[in-house]
Description:
Elements: E1 4-14, E2 25-26, E3 30-35, E4 38-43, E5 48-53, E6 62-67, E7 74-79, E8 83-88, E9 94-99, E10 105-110, E11 117-121, E12 125-130, E13 135-141, E14 147-154, E15 172-179, E16 183-188, E17 193-199, E18 205-211, E19 219-220, E20 235-241, E21 246-251, H1 253-258, E22 273-279, E23 291-301, E24 305-314, E25 318-324, H2 327-347, E26 362-363, H3 364-367, E27 368-375, E28 380-385, E29 403-409, E30 413-419, E31 434-439, E32 448-453, E33 459-472, E34 478-492, E35 498-503, E36 507-512, E37 517-523, E38 529-534, E39 540-545, E40 549-559, E41 567-568, E42 571-572, E43 576-587, E44 592-597, E45 603-608, E46 612-617, E47 623-628, E48 634-639, E49 645-650, E50 654-659, E51 665-670, E52 676-681, E53 687-692, E54 696-701, E55 706-712, E56 718-723, E57 729-734, E58 739-750, H4 751-785, E59 790-791, H5 798-829, H6 833-838, H7 846-850, H8 856-865, H9 869-876, H10 881-897, H11 901-914, H12 916-921, H13 926-969, H14 978-986, H15 988-992
Amino acid sequence: MVRSYLRHGGTEVFGLIASNSSNSLFDGKRAYVPALEDVFVWDTKRGERIAMWHATGHTSPVTAISRSPVDPNLFAVGYQDGSIRLWSGKSHDPLSIFEGHRRAISILAWDRDGGRLASGAVDGEVVIWDPVAETGLFKLRGHNHRITGLVFVAVPTHIPDPSSSTSLPSPSTHLLTTSQDTYLKLWDLQTQHSIESVVAHRTESWSLTVVPHIPSVPLAAADSEESSEPTLDDQLLMTTGGEGEVKLWILSSLVLLKGPQPSASGDGLQRAIIGAGSLTLSTHAAPGKRVLNAIAQRYSLRGGISGIVIAFQVGDRDVEVWRIRTVEEIKKKKARRRKREASKSQKASSNVADLTSTDDTITWLDRIHPWITVRGTSRICSFAFAPTANPLLFRTGEKPNELEVMLALGNNSVEVFTIPKPVSSSKSGSLQSTLLHSITLPGHRTGIRAVSISFNDQLVASGSNGSLKVWNIQTQKCIRTMECGYALCVAWLPDNQHILVGTKCGKLMIYELSSSTLIATIEAHTGPIWSLDLRPDSKGFVTGSGDKSIKFWTFTKKTANPSSSATAFTGELKTVELSATLSKTMKMSDDVLSVRYSPDSKFLAVATLDSTVKVFFQDTLKFFLSLYGHKLPVLSMDISFDSKLIVTCSADKNVKIWGLDFGDCHKSIFAHEESVMQVKFESRSHYFWTVGKDKMVKYWDGDKFENIQTLQGHHGEISALAVSHDGQLLISGSHDKSIRVWIKTDEPLFLEEEREKELERLYSLEESEKLDISITQSRKQGEEAGDEEVEAVSKQTTETLMAGERIIEALLLADADLDLTNRFNIAKENMDPEKAEKLAPPARNPILVAYDNISASAYVLKVIQRIPRAALEDALLVLPFAQVTMMLTHINYWAKKGCSTSLVCRILSFLIRTHETQITVTASLKLMIDSIKTNMTRSLKKHADMVAYNVEAIRFVKQAIELEQKEREFVDIDLRPEQEVRKLIKDKHMVKKRKVVL
């Protein structure tokens, strides 16, 4: 009989605030931060998590986040597996999935109208996506390293007219990219080619930002012989590098509009990207520090203060904030400079005429001025400013008094600082940022080393370097935080009110949960306490340490010194506190790494540094057994509920199951790819759990020596494991600072099915690796042959192959149904009319019957509609030409009926482009193609008429709404009383600022 088990499933992650794998966003109220494979939305003021964006079954970490500039509730999130998901900020659900990259996404960028999305990957590829059609437009290949900057460039379609007061926004026709290959490239999105490349830095280029439009003043580029007098639409670019410098560039819109023209010097064509010098950061930033990130955006504060802020992440903890001076400030600076030069010239008795030759040209470096430096309490992973100048994205309502910047730190915390208003240059050094909010309580600052579940299975305690936290398992909220040393082992006491902690410095600490206080500190060992275990009678415990000793402790109660003000009705109120007393000590020859009591209180197992496990009688401490076989020290062990089995795990990646009666090894299992850190038996069974440095949680059958289930989710080595006393849940803690709860479900699990799934996964990984190798080789050959820089967006995955197989199955089923129907009609025509009427139709396929006896073509369309739009073309690539001819038959039917016109056009276009040669030489398809052309033209015309009608209707409604608003805003002045009219005419201020009069 096949044995079945129960499957375990993961729940939400807790103990995590922000991970360091991606950038973060901030809207003044909410922080959107990466949290391993999820995105957390935090209310920075209350310190509460509002939402979590989690894709079921997806475990790849988040690597990039970007927000649509026109829809504040639309977010693009890139992942390490190369996928991109669009998320709704309202429903917190994924809207669509894009698959086009084979490597991790490194950066995302929207164009100004939100109609296109650009994604860059670590392999140097850039893909342009259409979020509305959910398709990839094309892929740009020109970089050979990680993409670090993406910016859409909007170039005007005409030279701006100074006399014109209005101008329409220009579309994004170009794209700027930077990469760690040191290049800054300018791409023409219409021709899909790189039109200019510049070596931006001597080492890696880490970021790219474009300074928003600034009012025109006479400017000059530095270190350039060419004229760089920009028009109103020229843009300032900034790139940061690994050598600690920031370079400025001017992007000439005139060159992009008219094309490269001969330069004035006659030595070539004009360049679109012109160097404008290097920015020198503050003196405290040591030379050579990497400038990792740069942000430039507008700000608008209360009191009419506005401008442009530019910030750079320098090194690990500093964010240098600069600003753009106004035109008035520049004029004052130039006047002061002329005065200083005049005074120096007078003292030197030089010719006064030299003063008139002073260069008054303003450079970009003159306009950029340091504002303040914000220093985080730990390493900064990313930062973001509140978009105060964008009412569409700024969520707090009224404008703030000060600028706010959010820092996502590497120690699992988020901080929000306020930056005071800018002052004059002489006072800029006295400005200090202020910590406004911080989110620290819901997570540990370092990796989690130990977890323990309370005896009532309601609470879990987690320990790390510096803190002990208590969590509610049901709500996953942190209810207590207590300071401690470097916690290595944690245990609850049976009263569920006290927690015992062993630290790296050899101290034992006892905490009381109700008061969140440390009630006892015991200098237990001179070395780290690697393990502790409660006695089965709960009257004491044992500790094992790196000082080569095992100590046995007994719980005692002591009366605390009463407070002078603590009185009861009948005298002083005395408090009783729990403590521990040393009862005996046993010396060992090596460091003790793990200790464990048997549930029947008969044995004590001790794992030492010599890779052996020694078993002693618990009462007399006499030697009983020695378990040897591991090649490296045993890190953890556990004894089954019936005291018959002991399981050990070691750094040699093996798990061994021993009999506790004779000490024989029942089985040695190669359990993990890395060191096995913890092992625990499940309550009342011989099933056990293991965790390791390979980030896996594995479930085993100790009797059949089978791997029941492998749970993936952690992104760092797992060093903490706890199993509930009822065996219904498992808790694991990792160095990725997350705590995960795995719950036993009612879903049965069969080993054969799990093995098949594992083989399929390994096969898909192998095929993916082969495909990656072939793609890499073909690209190298293409680069040597000088192939084009653009290619179609395609990514063959297991899902797309399965989708193609579903289409083939649907086509075969539909073909069989059509053939059956044709044969029935032919037979009916050849029979007598009376017999033909009595002839019963043939039985159709049960699948078609289940769909309410729909037609075969309608069923094929339903199957195609269920395939994600981003994966449709990859799925159609799987079709052999025989199925393509079948598909053309159904396309003709769909075009005739007008079904899903846009989808059918897309399918037809792709099939024609892919199989053009074969379709052309197949004479039998000529009539089919002509029929499709006729029907599709009619269907498209009908569709176009419908769209045009809807557009005109929307335009009419818009005009009606605007007219209604104007009627409400302005009331005819003749309808007002004469006195009020005279008052309005006299009061110019009121005439200028008159508001709605209803």
